[in-house]
Amino acid sequence: MPEYYVIPNEDGVKRLMKEYGLTRDQINEDVTTVRNWMLTQPHLPKFPESKNDELSFWIEGFLRLTKNNLEKTKLAVESHFRMKTLFPDVYDVNDLSNYVESDLFDYLTMVMFPKYTPDGLKIMYYSFKDSNSQLFRPVEIYKRMRLMLDIYQRKGIDFTGIHVVVDTRNITLSHISQFDLFQLKNLIKLAQKAYPLRLKHTHILFPPSFIDVAKNILKPFVSKKMFARLSFHKNLETLWEHIPRDILPIEYGGYTGNLDVIREEWKTLILKNSDWFLSNASYKSDESKRLKKKKSFSCEKISFKTLILD
User: Would you tell me which of 51, 69, 120, 190 could form a disulfide with 47, CB atoms 3.0–4.6 Å apart?
Assistant: First the structure.
């Protein structure tokens, strides 16, 4: 089984520690600082002693993602538990064994490729099985993304940035119309804090004829920085200018295995971590106990409604 997908690369860990000027003693001290802070926040969950080592390792991952910034780490931890409360559909882990064998799961391919770019970044990829949107659910994108990122958090972070590659050959206006854009904006805003990855670039492969329509719909809901890091590729040659071919699967002119094999390996990884997901499902924020009132998202009941396009 491909545990190598998520076992930390020691060279990557050393590179990050050197970049941030960190020592093991400093990391331990910062983890303790964050843990002590968590105890002062009544809205955050309380963990049993049996979770001590796991929690410390998890916080260390956030410290790496935030370049060892304590305040950003606290924000990431707090945002993570808040997301679990505000967006329960994204964090639903009931019956993962049946879920990964379902048509719903099969319709969306979302994986991390096993290799790293020369500068230590990971590649997140997704596409749709066909153009029939009946099996498409926007929540699936967020759910699958968080399953992958949480597995990396559990195993250990050895990267801080990603390329996102989206094959849009099967995307239609019917897919786009299913997004509730206001909820999408709220989710993205909170997710960027809860999973503080550096987005190097988003690559849209084989853009459809209506891509300008989609861009105009999404533009008000996506930050200018994210929009500036968006590229459209009508052929694979321009993608290879950004991502080396030895990192890509053979379907995209690369040399790193078959995409279907990578899909199956990620299914197995999710299943192998299903007990862990269940053991952490109840740890979420209690917004009624928050010390300082913050602006809410007005999303007492999160649902992914259909947006009607004129």
Answer: 51
